[in-house]
Amino acid sequence: MKTRDRSARRHHAARRKARVERVLAHLLAGRQGRLRSRVKGVLADTPARCSCWMCANPRRIFGETTVQERRLFATTDDES
Fold this sequence. Notes:
Strand content: under 5%
Order of helices and strands: HHHH
Number of helices: 4
Oligomer: single chain
């Protein structure tokens, strides 16, 4: 596995922050001024802000199966 150097980490951090800024600019439609750098960093590093039932993984909360598992079960049921 290739070790990422500092420049790669900085590049990806800047890319994530730019994406957060684009998404929020679209969602807020200019209703808010420029975001502070710290806020962009927090949103870029933690896309899921909480673990409530609305934000968390449905598999963990509700025990739902993944699409891949449903396909597997469907093919095994058809073969039986």
